[in-house]
Structure formats: structure tokens, C-alpha cells
């Protein structure tokens, strides 16, 4: 427990040491919250057609918060790799597994809490607490995807930022399935957020959610497992 607390405190110090990390971790979530809380209702008055898309718009804003947190943790890992910290961890018994687990759980906890605030605090739509907790859990699985992928495909923070922009676009793609009526939309089922988005839509429409929830958990778990293996090979076995 002492090691976990020490790591957490060190991560917080690293986050507030760099402006971009501080912005993505704290400022960006606040801005997204204000956009949802204040901006969307005004936009809905000016453009009533947007009201029908409030659920999707809220999800997209929440996605930016979740992926941003993953980017922050990934940037810390890239710094640790450059500073040789990961080399020391690699030679310690069981340290690699504990390191990966800690990073994943830390990012999931922060993302879960911020997602819950976005869902229940903005007042854009009404979501029962039980459903909100499930949606927040699914969104908390986004951060591990980002934090595992960026260090695996990037050599430094500059490359990491460029990769993050492309990866974030990939995360956004399943939103297109709401506007495509053909079977082509099913191709997005390979991406985890396809299931999360439609799970939220089913909640909003009062439809059965079991299939969407099960699919979201399964696809997220599959991609996280693949990325953990890739992360171990690319980051720890250099």
C-alpha cells in the first residue's frame, strides 16, 4: 500500500509539473463539463435539432475527458522510459505486472469519477444511478487503451502526441454508426466504443441493454489484453 501511495503522489507531482498534462488532467475535464452544462442547452435553443443528439454529444464530450486522462498517464510512462525508470522496474521480481496493474487501475479510477460527474452533473439528460455507474465503468476502460497504446507505438512524447490525435479519431469513429443505415455500420463493432455508445442509447431509449453491455465488456477486455501483451514487449523488452 505504501508503494501505491508513493507512486500516486509521484504521478500527481509529474502531472502538475507540465502544463499540457495539467491541462488534460484538470482543465480539459472542467471545460468539457461547462460545455455540456452551459453550452449545449444554449445551442439547443438556437438550433433545436441538436436536442435529439444530446446523448451522443454528451458521450463525445465525455470521451475527450476519458482519452485525455489516458494520454496523461501515457506521457508519464514515456518520461519514465526516457529517464530509465522502467529499466529498473523490469529487473525487479513481479514489478512489471504490478506496475501495469497500478497504471491501469489508477487511470480507470480517475476516468470513472470524471465520467460519473459528466453524466450526472451536467443535467443534459436524466440517467438512473445504476445505469450511470455502468456507463462510467465502460468509459473508464478507455483510459487503459490509450495509456497502453501510446508508449507501445511512440518513441517519445512528441510522437505520442501525434499518435494520440490519430488514436482519438479512431475512438470517435463508432459515432458514425448512428448515421449509417447500411450493414457497413456493423464494421464499427470491432471497436469498443461502438458497444458503449449503443449501450447508452439503449438506456436512453428504454430498450434492452444486456447485449450491448456484454459486447462492450468483451471487446474492451479483448483489446486491453492485446495491448498489455504489446506494451510488455515494446516497452519492457527493449
Which regions contain 5 or more consecutive residues with pLDDT less than 50?
A: none
Question: Helices and strands: which structural class?
Answer: mainly alpha
Q: Give the helix proportion (percent range).
A: over 70%
Instruction: Give me the strand/helix succession.
Output: HHHHHHHHHH
Kindly provide the radius of gyration, computed on alpha-carbon positions and rounded to a whole number of angstroms. 18 Å
Give the overall shape.
globular
Q: Average pLDDT across residues? A: 87
The overall strand count is 0
Main sheet summary: none
Number of helices: 10
Can you put this structure into words, describing what you see?
- The chain is built from ten helices and no strands.
- It has 238 residues and is mainly alpha-helical.
- Helix 1 (2-17) crosses helix 2 and helix 7 packs parallel to helix 10.
- The chain is globular, with a radius of gyration of 18 Å.
- The model has no long low-confidence stretch (mean pLDDT 87).
How would you summarize what this structure contains?
Helices cover 78% and strands 0% of the residues.
From the structure above, extract its key features:
238 residues, mainly alpha
Write the layout of secondary structure elements.
Layout: H1 2-17, H2 19-46, H3 54-82, H4 85-90, H5 95-121, H6 129-140, H7 142-153, H8 157-172, H9 192-205, H10 210-235
Helix pairs in contact: 1-2, 2-3, 2-5, 3-5, 3-7, 3-8, 5-6, 5-7, 6-9, 7-8, 7-10, 9-10
